[in-house]
Amino acid sequence: MTATVEVDVLIVGAGPVGLYGAYYAGFRGLSVALIDSLPEAGGQVTAMYPEKLIFDVAGFPAIKGRELVEGLLAQAATFEPTYLLGRQAVGFERAPDGFMQVTADDGTVISCRAVIISGGIGTFTPRPLPAGSEYENRGLCYFVPSLSEHADRDIVIIGGGDSAFDWALNLHPIAHSVTLVHRRPAFRAHAHTVAQVRATGAEIITPAQVTAVRGADRVEEVEISVDGEPRILPAQTLIAALGFIANLGPLKDWGMTVVAHRHIPVDTTMLTDLPGVFAAGDIADYPGKVRLIATGFGEVATAVNNAAVLIDPSAHLFPGHSSEAVPV
Amino acid sequence: MPYVIAAPCIDVTDKSCIEECPVDCIYEGDRKLYINPKECIDCGACEPVCPVEAISQDRRVATEYGDFVADNAAFFTVTLPGRDEPLGNPGGAAELGPVGVDTELVAGYES
User: Domains of chain A, with CATH numbers?
Assistant: First the structure.
């Protein structure tokens, strides 16, 4: 079933800038939805440095990333935005009535009158396994959402980070065998987890790389090169935990200009060259751009207020002072 | 203010940094890895994983490795041996693959 969400403004990217944009849209009396491919709001701050102190957000001499996101969520909550998390904005088209329709990867359709893209560095996707990527979903996977589907299998896990070792530890009790393959003898995973995996008796092979994946329909065996020597491992599940890469993903097919593979040029109103589509934060680009959370906040306020006028030409561009607004 | 890889990487090229980089902006030469300063988003994820501590912010590069700030950029702006034009900003190292050659400074570096 296709769900439809109808709002004035859709914000693509629920990082700090998108969250502040949600507050501002609410303050302007606009209904707003936020969509983000990550399962949690906060964007890069939540995903990469929740515990780091940030020193350059106005009004906060020092604030942890996690606390900044909590504050932004609380501020936005005043106006009850709709969150569409764990979903990626994929399709973009214009409806004849002037509305824009954005389709998410789960089929949700968001009908809106303005879009603000605050997508930062883009959407995070797993780094593909160079050899054998054609077996994705046929034995090769990049995530392990459910352990049980791998029960009784021979499992080969590629990688040396926490994900690789956590999955090895969790799958070992139910698997027929677990083998961990990493291209170097040192691991980035926590030493404690590495020790736990070693204690299970799971084989750890280093330095080794995957050279081929074989199987008639699904993965049946993995060929690795161990210090130059080939070795065949039987495998019905191959898990590649090679980290993540951010890229613009489907946004680059929406039709607006994209520069250097990751930036979207905007004018002084934060409008892109696609009518009704604004951009703000790290993804937006103009001469003299400085990529900081602080500048992103200003940009998204500019974008929302200009969107308000676009949606209702009789509206004022200047929102008035929040200190004079009627308390909610 | 990107991150920069200096001399300790030469002939080591551990590549842990490549796994950490969320924007895939660390490119593989022959003897050394190079960070594209135009693509680096300054997140710092690469710095702590380097086993030889070759990576630092450009403003904090040790004095003896000062030349490597410009040299990381040069890998992308100078036409490398065997190529017709500079690499520029390819937008991802995985797609480009190993470049296989180095800048003049690195190729002739005596470690």
Answer: 4-125+245-324 (3.50.50.60), 128-242 (3.50.50.60)
Whether A313 shows a pLDDT value over 70: the answer reads: yes
In this prediction the pTM is: 0.81
Quote the CA–CA distance of A222 and A295 in Å, as a whole number: 48
B53 at A interface, C-beta within 8 A: no
Any idea what the Cα angle at residue B53 is, between residues B49 and B57, rounded to 5°?
Answer: 90
N- to C-terminal Cα separation, chain A: 36
Determine whether the interchain pair B51/A188 forms a contact, defined as Cβ–Cβ distance below 8 Å.
Answer: no
ipTM above 0.90, yes or no: no
Model confidence at A1, in pLDDT bands (50, 70, 90)?
low
CATH architecture of B3-107: 2-Layer Sandwich (3.30)
| HEC profile of chain B | CCEEECHHHCCCCCCHHHHHCCCCCEEECCCCEEECCCCCCCCCCCHHHCCCCCEEEHHHCCHHHCHHHHHHHHHHHCCCCCCCCCCCCCCCHHHHCCCCCCCHHHHCCCC
Structure token digits, residue A51: 């515990």
Q: Do B23 and A282 touch (CB under 8 A)?
A: no
Closest residue in B to A262 (Cα–Cα): B91
Q: Are B32 and B106 in contact (CB under 8 A)?
A: yes
Measured between alpha carbons, how far is residue A9 from residues A30, A101, A158, A272, B61 in Å?
7, 11, 42, 15, 45
Compute φ and ψ for B44, nearest 5 degrees: 85, 5
Residue in A closest to B45 by C-alpha: A48
Q: In DSSP terms, which residues pair with A116 in a beta bridge?
A: A11, A278
pLDDT at A4 over 50: yes
Q: Best interface-test mutation with B: which of A262, A263, A283, A292 has the largest number of B CBs within 10 A?
A: A262
Give the residue extent of every domain in chain B: 3-107
Q: What does the block give as tokens for A98?
A: 């002037």
Q: What is the mean pLDDT of chain A?
A: 93
B14 touches chain A (CB under 8 A): yes
Coil, helix or strand at residue A41: coil
Cα separation, A233 vs A224, in Å, equals 8
Cβ distance A262 to B23 less than 8 Å, yes or no, reads yes
- Here the tokens at position A223 are 């060929």
Contacts of A282 in chain B (CB under 8 A): 41
Q: Is B52 on the interface with A (CB under 8 A)?
A: no
The nearest CA of chain B is from the CA of A203 a distance in Å of: 21
